[in-house]
Design goal:
This protein is of the alpha/beta class. It has two domains: about 100 residues, Beta-Lactamase (2-Layer Sandwich); about 250 residues, Rossmann fold. Helix 8 packs across helix 10 and helix 9 packs across helix 10. It starts with a helix and ends in a 5-residue tail after the last helix.
Length: about 375
């Protein structure tokens, strides 16, 4: 593997057409569709730019450079690349003939500047009351899933709320590709590894997770659930490992549970569906749903409590504590919305109190009047 200094110097030359966007802190994604169709995302909006690569060989050379740095292989037999740049930015690329109009490349920028809780408040992603409720839920070691679509802000939100983890807690972070920047003093970061060209040396998230249970974790954070490791995490959550956090792709809180079922069934454990659903309902306490709305902004849309699984009805019991209400679009194209309390009382209130924490007084009073209604 070549050194970062040599790689970065070479790469900047090879990626000269998009270098201005790699240096622009407002650009979050760079999308390359062949040599002459380039797009960037800025402030959540895509726009076409005039840049182009002078020849296909320059773009292919850049991709080979990235593959070499990442310890991956890219050729006609292996035309798909998942790698990263020295600054941590993620790169996904697909070569022809799979990509019919030329190499297709997506660069997701990695920002060293952390998105703070205050910044989330300023952007209207959440409210002070929601922030305080999340602080209590995470501090008392409930298991939390942050869910949303691609580029909806899942990782950024998880980074921000990690400030609610106790300073003396030992946190093990497991990722397929390192992105999380948890804000704590005792954070151990672990990263999966792909197999080499001969199929050797692969270390999966499941491999790391199983070992991590023996490394005295106070909390386990998995950057993103994608497969059979979901069942391992669910079983850990139900056997005394509280305070776990993770992200996954899903559109609504109920979809989170369906996705967990699907991923758990990818494991090598043959578990009856009704038993699996019972474990999921017991393991997952809170779903924080995020979305990128029409104007490109990223918002929390739901904070939902999982209250169990009704075997007779065959349904998960989900209690929305907060839900975003959308109210149209203003003259500037900005989506108007508000994240409001539903008035539903959290089932976990007794656990919170037993853990020595208190929900915000106004929220507690409102939910006491509203009662508990799970759907």
């Amino acid at each position: 593997m070549i050194s970062s200094h040599i790689f970065q110097s070479t790469l900047l030359d090879l990626l000269a057409p998009v270098r201005p966007y790699l240096d622009d802190p407002e650009v979050s994604e760079i999308l390359i569709n062949g040599v002459d169709r380039l797009f960037i995302e800025r402030a959540g909006r895509l726009s076409k730019v005039d840049a182009r690569f002078p020849h296909l060989r320059e773009l292919l050379a850049a991709l080979q450079n990235i593959a070499q740095y990442s310890g991956r292989h890219l050729d006609q037999e292996r035309p798909i690349l998942e790698g990263r740049l020295p600054d941590g930015s993620r790169v996904a690329a697909i070569l022809p003939p799979i990509a019919r109009q030329g190499p297709s490349v997506a660069i997701r920028r990695f920002f060293t500047e952390k998105l703070t809780l205050q910044r989330l408040l300023d952007l209207g992603s959440l409210t002070p009351e929601v922030l305080e409720v999340l602080r209590v839920l995470i501090a008392c070691k409930l298991n939390v899933v942050v869910a949303g679509g691609t580029s909806s802000g899942k990782t950024s939100l998880l980074n921000a709320v990690s400030t609610f983890i106790g300073k003396n807690e030992r946190v093990l972070v497991i990722e397929d590709s390192a992105e999380l920047q948890l804000q704590g003093e005792h954070v151990v970061q672990l990263e999966a590894r792909a197999a080499d060209a001969r199929g050797r040396g692969q270390v999966t998230i499941r491999d790391i997770f199983r070992t991590s249970l023996r490394m005295r974790p106070d909390r386990i954070v998995i950057g993103e659930l994608r497969g059979g490791e979901a069942l391992d995490l669910i079983q850990a959550m139900t056997s005394g490992h509280g305070g776990c956090l993770t992200t996954l792709h899903a559109t609504y809180p109920r979809d989170v549970l369906s996705r967990l079922e699907t991923m758990a069934m990818m494991s090598d454990v043959d578990l009856p569906l009704v038993a699996l659903r019972g474990q999921i309902a017991s393991a997952i306490n809170i779903v924080v749903q995020v979305a990128r709305v029409r104007d490109g902004s990223r918002k929390i849309t739901h904070v939902s409590e999982i209250c169990g699984f009704d075997r007779d009805l065959g349904k998960y019991q989900i209690n929305d504590l907060f839900r975003r209400e959308f109210r149209g679009v203003d003259a500037s194209g900005r989506v108007e919305s508000e994240l409001v309390s539903t008035g539903h009382a959290p089932q976990c209130a007794e656990l919170i109190e037993a853990s020595g924490y208190e929900l915000p007084p106004a929220f507690a009073a409102r939910t006491a009047r509203g009662g508990s209604r799970a759907s």
